[in-house]
Design brief:
It is globular and about 50 Å long. It is built from 3 helices and 7 strands; from the N terminus they run H-H-E-E-E-E-E-H-E-E. The protein has one domain: Alpha-Beta Complex (Peptide Deformylase), CATH 3.90.45. Helices cover about 20% and strands about 40% of the residues. The chain is α+β, with helices and mostly antiparallel strands.
Length: about 180
């Protein structure tokens, strides 16, 4: 297993803000980056996407766990690599849940497109032209942002849109606004 350390903000602010370079071809080196990303994401079970810059590799490679609604709950699928992903159409912008492994325990409500058309290369080096909708579009957009050095906190419109999750004694998860002490709940 080749799991790597995920860069954490703000300690790794400069690295996370760097723009990534395009991949020339899907070489053995790029396949190793993909394996490292998958292994790292697997080690962090709560994640549903990871971009190469988050493991301090500044190449245009991301993995996303696309999902679908199962009984009203979004359920993530297996990780899928997107190489040199480029957004060629975005629509249906609205507020939705956002979080990032580089910001452990911090979540927010960001405005992102819920329909994206993306071109790029798949893990085998074949071209793709795919439309992502709903929360899948949010996940893909979030990861592509990383390739440009854009972080989810950049899309937060108000401090009230940031929160942490706290599990109450009965198991219920509640949103705790930043600045509120969890002990006071």
């Amino acid at each position: 297993m080749t799991a790597r350390k995920i860069l954490i903000y703000p300690e790794s602010k400069e690295e996370l803000r760097m723009k990534s370079e395009p991949v020339e071809s899907v070489s053995s080196g790029v396949k190793k980056i993909i394996k490292d990303l998958k292994d790292t994401l697997k080690e962090h079970g709560e994640g549903i996407g990871l971009a190469a810059p988050q493991i301090n590799i500044h190449k245009r490679v991301v993995i996303v766990c696309l999902g679908n609604d199962q009984n009203g709950e979004w359920e993530a699928g297996p990780p899928k690599a997107l190489i040199n992903p480029q957004i060629i159409m975005e629509a249906d912008e609205r507020k939705d849940f956002d979080g990032c492994l580089s910001f452990p325990g911090l979540y927010g409500e960001t405005i992102r497109p819920h329909k994206l058309r993306v071109i790029g290369l798949d893990e085998s080096g074949h071209s793709f032209d795919e439309v992502f909708q709903g929360f899948n579009a949010v996940v893909v957009h979030h990861e592509i942002d990383h390739l440009e050095g854009i972080l989810f906190i950049d899309r937060i419109k108000s401090p009230e849109d940031l929160y942490r999750l706290h599990k109450k004694p009965g198991g219920e998860l509640v949103k705790v606004p930043i600045g509120v002490k969890i002990n006071s709940l």
